[in-house]
Amino acid sequence: MKQVAATMAGTVIQVLVQAGDQVNDGQDVIVLESMKMEVPVQAQAAGKVVEVKVNIGDFVNDGDIIVELE
Amino acid sequence: MNKQLEETLREKIAKVEQGGEAKYHEKLKEQNKLFVRDRLKMLFDDEFMVEDGLFANVMAGDLPADGVVTAIGKVNGQTVCVMANDSTVKAGSWGSRTVEKIIRIQETAEKMRVPLIYLVDSAGARITDQLEMFPGRRGAGRIFYNQVKLSGKIPQVCILFGPSAAGGAYIPAFCDIVIMVEKNASMYLGSPRMAEMVIGEKVTLEELGGARMHCSVSGCGDVLAANEEEAIQSARTYLSYFPANYTSEPPNASAKAPSEAAKEITSIVPENQNAAFNMHDLITALVDADSFFEIKKLFAQELVTGLARLDGKPVGIIANQPRVKGGVLFVDSADKAARFITLCDAFQIPLLFLADVPGFMIGTAVERAGIIRHGAKMISAMAEATVPKISVIVRKAYGAGLYAMASSAFEPDACLALPNAQIAVMGPEAAINAVYSNKIQAIEDPQERQAFIAEKRKEYQEDIDLYLLASNLIVDGIVPPSDLRQELIGRFEVYKGKRQVFSDRKHPVYPV
């Protein structure tokens, strides 16, 4: 199981993938807002999305798991 | 003289040059490693090489060259000194002659004022020989003393091919750059076995001190190479940007136009201050094609640092990366910048700052990690740099982020702005909240409240209008994006004669 973690503390403003989607290495999966900036978070490996663990509006901390990949 | 003497000598030389026993050469092959003398051949321009201490410890019989080759050769036509561990001889461990040879090649490099390259692949000290090689005046400590003394005088480059353990791990730590071969290179004070014995931690070598970990997490590594050839080539490329020593100018290469794949700057930088873009696209549009040599590519990626050429002339680039963590400055990125600025300033490489920075990160995690002192480190290194330095405000520069990126107060030779640059203590949204928080809360009608916020934001935007800043001489110029490369080439050409001494004091009290 591969995971995508938040790269910094912030609020989820966009969820770009859903369970079942195939993502590529380096593809944006979530966009956070932090320090007033849009911060895209990329998958660090290719895989199929098993679960998106956050919703729009959620606060996440640096390192929190946001997406699980197969 | 008896002809036989020469033949005997040649046989002895040939035997030493073979290194350790055949089984250790077999092991090298299994690990995808090259023999030390093959590494040297690959590093140098040609066959030419001068070697000292070939017969070190020859009387021992089984310690050819005492496990280290010290040599002088040419890289890109420049004379360089090299020390290279031979891991086929007692795993490249250090005895007293090994240490003496390393100290001597350092002394040679200092006298000749030429770069020194450390090809490291060593298990560390021979504990059985510790009295002779560890504690004394010319013991291993002297190697590190010399490295510190040489730092900033001559380039010191480390390629790590294998382990660099315990005390030996400080050789890379005191070099200007550490190139690590993926999977084989490692750096650690205590091995995984020792970690388990002493503190009870179970961990793999790769997790504890592997090349990828050091290049992406600890910041001890600067370049991660896929194999030895790539690592050696990286060292040659890196040195092509550097002078032989701090008194000479970095070498020029033939000028090249930017890459054909480069995009128009106006299409790279979004007008929306908050949207992400890839700073690498801007760098590609500005510098000579294929000239960007990135340093610490995998570490603290919210800031990009690297060497490049503008019209053939070397320049060091420090650029915020909005695509990663919003380009916000963190503890590690401030560290990365401080280190890179010091490197360029030491060797007369001009500095180009490309600023698009929302500020330093805030919140519990970074305050506890000491973001203020790390930020101070970056600002201090930038302020002290006396090489030609140009700051370009690409989009926004807020708060201490503006200061850290060499803005007007820090004596850049020029602080330039692109036309949608925004310079302020903070962005409009945050500023209005900070100043009018009580008033905003007090307005009960939501429409009225929104109107008030919109009005105040408009006033704020007018306050920080770029032409107003230029009118007040806060920026030295506003540059049309498509002219930026030519503007930078022209300015660096003009500033090249700059000679400035920052201070005559002994040294600052470094914020670390």
What general outline of chain A do the C-alpha atoms trace?
Answer: globular
Number of strands of chain B: 16
The helix fraction of chain A, in percent, is under 10%
Q: Into which percent range does the helicity of residues of chain B fall?
A: 40-55%
Number of helical segments with 4 or more residues of chain A: 0
Looking at this structure, what is the CATH superfamily of chain A? Answer: RNA polymerase II/Efflux pump adaptor protein, barrel-sandwich hybrid domain
The first-level CATH class of chain A is given as Mainly Beta
Q: Under CATH, the topology of chain A is which?
A: OB fold (Dihydrolipoamide Acetyltransferase, E2P)
Low-confidence parts of chain B? none
Beta-strand percentage of chain B? 15-25%
Order of the strands making up the biggest sheet of chain A: 1-8-6-3
Q: Could you say which structural class the secondary elements and strand pairing of chain B correspond to? A: alpha/beta
| H/E element sequence of chain A | EEEEEEEE
**What Rg of chain A is obtained from the alpha carbons, in whole angstroms?**
11 Å
